[in-house]
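Exercise 7. Given the components listed, write out the predicted structure of the assembled complex. Treat all entries as one system.
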Amino acid sequence: EAGVAQSPRYKIIEKRQSVAFWCNPISGHATLYWYQQILGQGPKLLIQFQNNGVVDDSQLPKDRFSAERLKGVDSTLKIQPAKLEDSAVYLCASSLGRATGIPNYGYTFGSGTRLTVV
Amino acid sequence: AQSVTQLDSQVPVFEEAPVELRCNYSSSVSVYLFWYVQYPNQGLQLLLKYLSGSTLVKGINGFEAEFNKSQTSFHLRKPSVHISDTAEYFCAVTLQLMFSGGYNKLIFGAGTRLAVHP
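Answer.
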């Protein structure tokens, strides 16, 4: 089966500019996650969707970050305006299972988008 | 607060030697445990997971992990490593958060860099 697709792979922007990342999860996967991975750290969950509804965005800096999942399939994550500390790899993951109960199916990650803010 | 602690940030080891990567978690609720591997410029790949049942879990590439509830640990082991095992390894815990409607939240440790030398 095809994996989780993310684009672009790399992006360099100046601070205060805007940027958007795109994720296409595995077909049929109900749950979608966006993670931020700063260099030298583990991934940190930003937002979690089940179908097209948000189930957890407690760690999303909502003053500058936004995300949506259109029709419960593709998702976009936007940063506006970007700050230097937003430099990181943004990972998208999806899961066949629901966002509740035993995570029998685990989570499949994309290759990520590396953002550099200068 | 719920957390995952990977006790070693770096582990150097010679090829064909055994290795153990340590992971402890803090939680008083049901947890599900995962180990992921990340090769340079790639996404996260699932090595193994513990959901229930036998506390000794076998994964891909010859890795195994043991869930120890009394010590809240989930250490990863391999009896003989190869150069190709050089990568970053992440321990992760799925917590069921009742305040968010019982949704699962996947939390990662900071990672352990395994460096296998010839």
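Discussion: The radius of gyration of chain A is 14 Å. Chain A has a mean pLDDT of 91.
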